[in-house]
Amino acid sequence: MNLKDKVAIVTGAGVGIGVEYSKRLAAEGARVVCTDIQGGHAEATAREIVAAGGDAIGFKADVTSKTDTDAMASRTQDQYDRIDILVNNAALFTALPEGPFDELTEENWDRCMEVNLKGVWNCIRSVYPFMKEQRYGKIINISSVTWMMGRPFRLDYVTSKAGVVGLTHAIAPELGEFDINVNAVVLGLVQSDSALKVYGAEHFQKFKERQVFKRSLTPQDACGAVVFLASDDAEMITGQSLVVDGGLVFH
Q1: CA–CA dist 36, 34 (Å, integer)
Q2: Looking at beta carbons, which pairs linking 50-57 to residues 24 or more positions away fall under 8 Å?
Q3: Residue 68 CA to chain centroid, in angstroms?
Q4: Which of 161, 221, 211 minimizes the C-alpha distance to 186?
Q5: Annotated catalytic residue, options 21, 136, 157, 199
Q6: Residues with Cβ < 8 Å from 65, sequence gap 6 or more?
Q7: What are phi and psi of 91, to 5 degrees?
Q8: Does the annotation count 128 as an active-site position?
Q9: Tens place of pLDDT for every residue, the chain, 251 residues?
Q10: b vs e for 121-133, b when ≥16 Cβ sit within 10 Å of the residue's Cβ?
Q11: What CA–CA distance (Å, rounded) separates 239 from 214?
């Protein structure tokens, strides 16, 4: 149990990969705070963890609202008396329409940036005072290999995920003064239920053919990198981007 008695916040913990992150962190011994804009889903994840013998709470938090992320951090501190780990997972992906860059609406662009990039910034700002005070923290930001591939017809999403890496690299030196690690996990195409509904099996088959390992990534495949970067084994790793994509891109 690499994370025994650590306290972890996971955003976007109500659906998809966020559920798996939360369950895996709990299995490693962490006490997990599950948050999601769909509060009922976050609570369901927490109940599942508790039923399995873990320690978790779940509630609604909108990462685009600094008021919400401040409340998220304060409630975690009140409940567990510390904040050790933040997994910035909440993001829009399959809900975003695909299309040429010049047909992308300003509304969709702004909403994507607000959730995928501003949301990361908000959450870091909210947990920072607590991590600074205890001089300890592990922040893991979730990005995507799409920004390395220059994937067309998803300009808003790709740009936001490139921004997450840039934010990670820029903020790590500032937080390092207080012994806070900041890293990014850069994921390939993960075969979640929502992604499968949007893209279909044929799309995943094409990705598999381009990868070194000829199978689709599952939500569980992403968990090991998150646990590692959240653990004390990664004590001297910060400002880095760890690619988990089955050998699709080399970085």
Answers
A1: 7
A2: 52/23, 52/26, 52/27, 54/23, 54/26, 54/27, 55/26, 55/31, 56/22, 56/26, 56/31, 56/32, 57/32, 57/33
A3: 17
A4: 161
A5: 157
A6: 122
A7: -165, 155
A8: no
A9: 789 999 999 999 999 999 999 999 999 999 999 999 999 999 999 999 999 999 999 999 999 999 999 999 999 999 999 999 999 999 998 788 888 999 999 999 999 999 999 999 999 999 999 999 999 999 999 999 999 988 888 899 999 999 999 999 999 999 999 999 999 999 998 887 777 777 778 878 888 888 899 988 988 999 999 999 999 999 999 999 999 999 998 87
A10: bbbbebbbebbee
A11: 30
Counting runs of H as helices and runs of E as strands, what totals does the chain give? Answer: 10, 7
Q: Is-contact 153 98, C-beta < 8 A?
A: yes
* Residue tagged 């949007």 (tokens): 198
Token pair, residue 222, equals: 């992403």
pTM above 0.70, yes or no: yes
**60 is written with which tokens?**
């609604």
End-to-end CA distance of the chain: 30
